[in-house]
User: What shape does this take?
Amino acid sequence: MRLFHTVTTLFVLCAFSASISAQEPEKAWSLYLDTVTVKGNSFTSTVKTRTDGGLVWNMQLMDNLPKILGNADPMHYVQMLPGIQTNNEFKSGVNIQGCDQSHNLLTIGGVPIYNVSHLLGFFSTFNPSHYPTFTLYKSPPFAGAGNRLGGVLDMEASDEVADSVNGECSVGLISSQGTLRAPLGRRTMLTASLRGSYVNLLYSRWLRADNQQIKYSFYDVNATLVHHIDQHHTLSLDFYGGNDDVSLSERHYSADMADKWGNTMGAAHWQFSKGKRFKARSTAYVTSYHNRFRLTMQDATFELPSSITDLGLKGLAEWQQFSCGLEAVWHDIHPQSLLSSGSYNISSGTTDVVHSLECSVFANYIQPLSSTCSLRGGLTASIYHQLTSTFQAIDPSISVIYGNNLLQMTATYALRHQYLFQTGFSNIGLPSEFWLSCDENCKPQYVHDWSLNFAAYLLDRRYRLSADVFYKRLFHQIEYSGSVLDFVNTLYDLDQQLLYGKGENYGFSFMINKCSGKLTGWLSYAYTRARRTFNQKKAQGDYPANHERPHEVNAVAICTLNPHWSLGATFVYASGTPFTAPESISLINRNLMIKYGEHNSSRLKPYCRTDFSVNYKWKNRWSRENGLNLSLYNAIAHRNELFYYIRHTDEGSFSYHPVSFMLDILPSVSYFCKF
Assistant: This one.
């Protein structure tokens, strides 16, 4: 506003001077301005809001925030936003507005990634140096966001062509990563990223968690090739590959666990644009996730392989206020099956791969009602076919949007269906969940979703206040009611371990965000209930979902002291998650028998964590920027309960007790260079 007033004053004075000169040409007029001061606010907020309600995060600003063993993880900071549930150190993924992780769509350039877990869930598979931004929709207000009940988080690589070779690298305590951006002519750009770990090389003797000796390694590979055919056509190719290999050895229980899992994704995108009036985008892709869990106990061996592979084609066209598109996906789903030997529960793992076809068509239209208000309507028609069943659905959505330079409000209703399920024993630090197709027993999930969003800029746009209220009514929900030992002691039958029911998510959140100045960041609070209702022998009544955290407080702060030094801090307080406690434990014929109490009737203690970082940056003749990051993870050394563990003592007795992270305070130092 000050800049606007200054420019207006100068314009009036110049016009007045010209007018006087025109009326009296024989006289000379002079105007002298002693001092002109132009002031403006530098907006350095980490999170920005798009006009369609999406939150956009600039990845480069993660350099100033606390890191986990030298890694700035996007999923870790997504959980700092209101309405996004905080996970513990041994759990990855996101729970948005009370939804299960499988209800939310995580994508790279719009292509699904089915598991994003690295380092036992400690951080994710997304390499922040490869993606300049990510976009998050807590509850998509438009059709075509994918057949999921929850939100969407999309990592998008840049399509710009640089003038010269550039890149960045980072060296941490457990892994290093590098990104190279190389122009191949004036219209073509290649971006390649690589991340690899050496955690066992330096920390093998310290990698212990409650008498479990851990061996671990992982890697990520990203590649993006962008070619601008002409000013209207762009072709891009995307590739991602990653793998984890972990083994755990527990001396008290005489058990060895091993797991290998990973993702592979390849996609080709074609984009056409004709000014701002018409845009079209087509994508052909293949994405695959595999997991092979292995458990050895005394003379018995158990394996639980599972996988899912998609082959997809989708297109989108936008013209003025109208957009439409279609998507077809061929799924090959291998649900978790048991391969065992040397135990009472002998199985050959005969579960067949389920082949299915999922097709969707959708359309959106925006009708302006005034200069500040508009109405958005959408419709999605979908069909899902597998060997024994065919399901159809028509999902409407409608939003009323009000917005000006200082205020935005959106009220939305949407009906959405989802044809894929994810389940399995969890909270053991391994990606133990697997994917299922809907069938006669597991009907397609669907949700009635109501939400109201509000955002306003305050005090010359230096602050931003936002709030959300939501209610979701969910149907055909499932939960896994057993534990990792179910397939050890009994004849393994997946259907006997599943609870079928319905649920509801409701709550509200608010956030105050400081957008400018030396000190930026936000403070937020969220209240979220995720309830599930079952009517089966194992569980009858209303229960909290496995991931429910009713209360959460998050704070993020970045203080830029000068061009070289900056400080970062994060604070998290969250209610503990529910769990089903055992009532009795016994060993019969070398088989561990557990009798559980009421489903999810117990709850872990509240989760609390404070992280700090100190950053120093400098430049030299060989690079654009160099930096050192010193971080303290859980600086207050709070012992957070991650999950409960069945323990067998040397004397032959059994007990269950909480497991905390391996170190109270986790310091780390990392170096990064941008050239």
The two ends are 37 Å apart (CA to CA).
